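Running this now, will post back.
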Amino acid sequence: MTSPQPQAFAFYGRVSTEDNQDPESSRSWQLTRATALIQPHGGRIVTEYFDVGQSRSLPWQRRTHANTLLTALRNPRRGFSAVVVGEPHRAFYGNQFGLTVPLFAHYGVQLWVPEIGGAIDPDNEAHELVMSVFGGMSKGERNRIKLRVRTAMAAQTLLEGRYLGGRPPYGYTLRDLGPHPNPAKAADGKHLKGLTPDEQTAPIVRRIFAEFLAGIGLFAIAEGLTANHVPCPSAHDRARNRHRSGIAWSKSAVRVILTNPRYTGRQVWNKQRTDEVLLDVDDVAMGHTGVMRWNARDKWVVSKKITHEALIADAIFEQAQAILQRRGRGTGGQHVRQRTRNPYVFRGLIYCAACDRRMQGQYSHGDAYYRCRFPQEYALANQVQHPSNVYLREDTLTDPLDTWLASAFAAGRIEQTITAMTDAQPPNQPPPLATTTQTIITECDTKLERYRAALDAGADPAVVTEWISQTQAERARAEADLHAHSSNHPRRMSRTEIKDLVHALGDIAAVLRDADPTDKAEVYRQLGLRLTYQPETQTVRAAVDLSAHRGVKVCVRGGT
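Update: finished.
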């Protein structure tokens, strides 16, 4: 290579749980390899970027420190002129190298790799081939790790009945079974855990099975438990169920207990799986995201032997499953992921005034409705007053709501609305961390001026150059942090910008009327729209937040 060797390097490395390595040991090893590569060329590492706990399958833009490094490339005062990676198969996965190296070439930053023996030449076909091989190796290694882990977990469940973690089912709690059988994990102080009956909830499980086999329905069981002041599963364990109300037993909670084979004393694994789906179908380079989905009953792995104290006998459990199967509610069928054929314009925005719960969308005879069936799912022995069924038809609300929203942009009120929208914005005050970061940048600039003055005064160039490199690296990190915080902090729009935007929309009522339902739903969501349906008066309170909470009631049963 004819270009002069760079002196200041940034180091990038990565490790996660899928690598099965200690993060600090892996970082030390990768850093040692990178240092050994650049030292013979007079290079030194001035800043580090190391991702811990993030999968190699994530593209660089979605890794925390890798994305910070890419942001630093755009800064001419970044403080380094090359990047060295510790291990290419940890840094690049699949075709990530081909999507990332053009950025380095564009900003004139060399990329050094130990396996290449120096800097990568973007025009060298051999270098491109070698890095492609490492990307394929990385992908293959991850797939092998996944296969080994899943195979081991299946074997441990099937043959040993080992508890593999997760939340203990209602009716059980965890107990210590002693040191872990793996010597390395035992040396770290890890212990095996197992299920043991919970004195408070185990009798409730037995009661549910007994009542169900006696012919009592799911709702009646839930009603009886709530009437007897028995805490439902989410109320019993509030620490893990803060997102649930915990006010009463529901039919679904009873059904989950009746279909859980763990109550027979056997361990169960693989009831759910994680599928990788594209994050953005229009941008494959953004990679995948994990989605939890249910497996069919024949995919479950059930231990061959009894591994913990059973709460229910096998015969009782099978009898319950037979009854559920006859009702079409058993666990033998595949959980089907339902997709809505038509979008719901007010999805997630309509609340029932009787219980303050979101109303669910439902299509009936080709028309969209929103319903609240609280009494049919939750026991009402806790004196919650609620109609048996609450229904609201979508098209009876759309026109009155759009007319109300459009009235805020009518000729006589548009200036008032624009003023309210301007005043409603948060002030342009930078977050405290951004202020601290700006202070660091200012201090670094002051230091650099002093160091340059010291050079002019005859100080040792080698020492001063090292000071300058360290300060420039510190400044680059601060600028990258400042950029990240600034991008997450919305900019306050001026009154003129808001006015231009509103006038560009034209007739707001026509825009809302003719808009695609999906786009209209997004507009309502961005407005912070909240609709509260009062079934007794058949009115909806619509509220948005411009400068202060305001609302209006419209009748949705034959009139506006």
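The longest helix spans residues 125-160. More later if anyone needs it.
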